[in-house]
Amino acid sequence: MNTKTPERVPVDIELHSKSRLLAVSFSDGARFELPCEYLRVFSRAKEVRTMNAPVVGKEDVNITHIEPQGQYAVRLIFDDGHETGIYSWDTLYDLGENREQNWKRYLEQTAGLGIERHDTAGEPRHLRLLYFTYLAQQLRKESEEVQVPDSVVDVSSLVEWLKRDKQNHAHLFRDGSFQVVVNKQFSEPFTRLDSGDEVGFVPTSPVAPVAGKP
């Protein structure tokens, strides 16, 4: 029986269901944001490891439950019925550290087999934006419906797009001056945005930022 204490232990594991993403922070300071699709595709379950072809069609898969497995791993249960994947701390760290290379190799493999990924790029996406306090006053609107470009995939990219789209009011979207809620839930910069989402901008101060001043 191996009783050796793992050197790299998670200090926080948080599922962001809206973004279909698992954020894992380790004791050495490393933090990885792992998409559910990526974790599902690279499951270490025997039935996955012994497949002769890559796992495909999991673009919209999500994690429904996270179950601790002793002091060394978690079992991730996915909404497509996959529930045998055990992810040790070393596995999660390795998947995080090598995510870019792993995913590039996976895409090359699927492309080589002629497998196309489900992609909504190019389809019109609409968001409802809500503005509060001085944002509503200075923008002269409390809400608006917008069609966003393909580059807007999450909260962070939405804010950057708004700064470009509303150049005369870009200072109002200064970092740290507001919080963002998506479908009435406080969000993170990486929170995924889907067509039909409602996004609210809530200033953190009653005083509006001034253009040209930090």
Beta strand count: 11
Largest sheet: 5 strands, mixed
Overall spatial form: elongated
Arithmetic mean of pLDDT: 91
* Helix and strand element order: EEEHHEEEHHEHEHEEE
Q: Provide the number of structural domains.
A: 2
- Classify the fold: give the CATH topology of the largest domain: NE0471 N-terminal domain-like
What is the name of the CATH architecture of the largest domain?
2-Layer Sandwich
**CA-to-CA gap between the ends?**
58 Å
Any low-confidence stretches, pLDDT <50, length ≥5? Answer: none
The proportion of residues forming helix, as a percent range, comes to 10-25%
The structural class is: alpha+beta
Radius of gyration: 21 Å
- The strand line-up of the biggest sheet is 8-7-11-9-10
Strand content: 25-35%
Written description of the protein model:
- The chain has helices spanning 36-41, 46-49, 89-97, 99-112, 134-139, 155-165, and strands at residues 10-16, 21-26, 31-35, 63-69, 73-78, 85-88, 125-131, 143-148, 178-182, 185-186, 198-203.
- It is an alpha+beta fold and 214 residues long.
- It has two domains: 10-112, NE0471 N-terminal domain-like, CATH 3.30.2020.30; 125-203, Beta-grasp domain (Ubiquitin-like (UB roll), Roll).
- The strands form three sheets. Strands 8-7-11-9-10 form a five-stranded mixed β-sheet. It has a three-stranded antiparallel β-sheet with strand order 1-2-3. Strands 4-5-6 form a three-stranded antiparallel β-sheet.
- A hairpin with a 6-residue loop joins strand 5 (73-78) and strand 6.
- The radius of gyration is 21 Å and the shape is elongated.
